[in-house]
Amino acid sequence: MRQRHEKTVLFLCTGNYYRSRFAEVLFNSVAGKMGLPWRASSRGLALERGVHNVGPMAVAAVQALEARGLRGITDFARLPTQVTADDFDMADWIVALKEAEHLPLLHERFPAWAEKVEFWQVDDAPEALALIEHEVMDLAARLIVGGRKRVAPPPEIAVEPAVPKKEMTGKSAPVVRLGREMKGRRGKGVTTVFDVPLDEAGLLQLATKLKDRCGTGGTVKDGVIEIQGDQRDRLAAVLESMGYRVKRVGG
Asked: Which of 54, 64, 235, 237 has its C-alpha lying 20 to 30 A from 142's C-alpha?
């Protein structure tokens, strides 16, 4: 029986060159910042279909990760790797990046695992990386609360913002600001969430849920939610999973 401190996410795409590699590196960065006991790996379902790929990893994926401050990552240099049965067996959570593309491959090559995979809807296209980033943050938020499967809407995090849900798409989603306050705190800073389009009762409800997600204390003062400690990465993931757009302010 396996015994290890960290659990494993396995990201799958076709050639293990672009989408799954970006997801792997980004997830490991996010999990490290959040203190999640999870580690990602990635593999390809059909490496033979990537015969025209040049180099170990797509340049666009590397550049996008470097733009996010992830430089000199050793995984940038490894070659694409074909998934094996052992990879599936070792994984605690499996994600395939595109259902229409990857479900047939799973049925063909690893049928026993096809029903155990979470499917995203990410095409092999230039705009894929922004969508993968959103999905990675959503996955991290779900793992924070114990690894619940994707359901809509998740009842335990359903806090209704002032804007109707049908309008909460793209740029029309409510914007909240996330900051860090140290002044007068004797070195014990707080993370602040403000400009939230909720009334006082809604703010108190949201604050309670955010405290639960972070496992720490907090309060609401003058319309600002204060959560103890530096919880910016974790709160950003949770708030985005609720449908908010998060803008960070300050350092």
From this structure: 64
Q: What is the pLDDT of residue 244?
A: 87
Comparing C-alpha atoms, which of 42, 40, 41 is closest to residue 14? Answer: 42
pLDDT score recorded for residue 172: 64
- Looking only at the bridges linking them, the beta strands covering 245-248 and 224-228 are unpaired
How far apart are alpha carbons 73 and 229 in whole angstroms?
Answer: 28
DSSP 82: B
Q: Mean per-residue pLDDT for 233-241? A: 86
Q: Where are the alpha helices (DSSP H) in the chain?
A: 19-34, 59-67, 85-90, 99-109, 128-144, 200-214, 232-241
List, in sequence order, every residue forming a beta bridge with 245; answer none if it has no partner: 175
pLDDT at 8 over 80: yes
DSSP-derived secondary structure letter, 191: E
Cα 144 to chain centroid distance, Å, stands at 10
Mean pLDDT check: name the lowest of 114-128, 169-183, 193-207.
169-183
Joined together, the tokens standing for residue 100 give 């229409």
DSSP of 92-127 = SEEEESBHHHHHHHHHHH-GGGGGG-EE-B--SSTT
Q: Which residues are within 8 A (CB) of 130 and not within 5 positions of it... i.e. 6 or more apart? A: none
Give 158 or 87, the one with higher predicted confidence: 87
